[in-house]
Predict the structure.
Amino acid sequence: MTDIHAYDNAPEAEFGDYVALLKPRVMSLVVFTAFVGLIIAPVDVHPFIAFCSVLFIALGGGASGALNMWYDADIDAVMRRTQGRPIPAGRVTGGEALAIGLVLSGIAVMMLGLAANWFAAAFLAFTIFFYAVIYTMWLKRWTPQNIVIGGAAGSFPPMIGWACATGGISIESLLMFALIFFWTPPHFWALALFMKEDYHKAGVPMLTVTHGRAATRRHIFAYTLVLAPFSIWLGLTSVGGPIYLGVSIVLNLLFILGGWRILRRGEDAATADQYAVEKRVFKFSLSYLFLHFLALLVQHWIGGW
């Protein structure tokens, strides 16, 4: 039986702990890519409707994060980089996180439907379900392809933003999806190379755990090659132009070069320099995605093809 006094010494939750449940770093990427998708769409949207749409998409992204933290509390308690999160640290209970996630999901979907359109709202609801159920509850603990398939959840926001403006899907929004979808595996696998022990202890079947680091290095390089044509193809559509195309070509050459350097690494060399190359590629991958969407925004304001 649980001692009711066991929680007497638990640290008291602060406002920042509830914000942390929403994974603000991940939410910032959701907000930015959704904003870009909405702005570059070929339909003008009233600024207030645009603001509300991005706000509710962000709220839905935060709700997904809370549901993920609720279900993954056991894993987070084992992994070194996540032990300080609100639930494993004892500052927020799992029940609170679940309630926050469900309530915010309902608010986000309903309000997006009222603010923009119900197609975008249904798309947001599916995205929350995909991340919280299909990825978090199933793929993450079942297959080393968890990041590949589960990456779709993080790839939907620009499509939702586009749908808020147009009420539908197009080749441009599908290519924005592909840009994030094929970027996700090399981004996370680069992280997994120097965080393998965390995933091993937590029992998460990350590729580094199930197939080893050598296979992961090959997969990273392969995905940088697959990613390049999709990101460049986006520059040849109605939302592209010379600025985006130039930025994309340079960034893809650098990403492929980073993937090649990771591929050529032996484990002894990587261990000796504490995975310096892998860490640099991981950090660059963050800039890679941000600069692609920033280039889309700049190209839109200047004018494209």
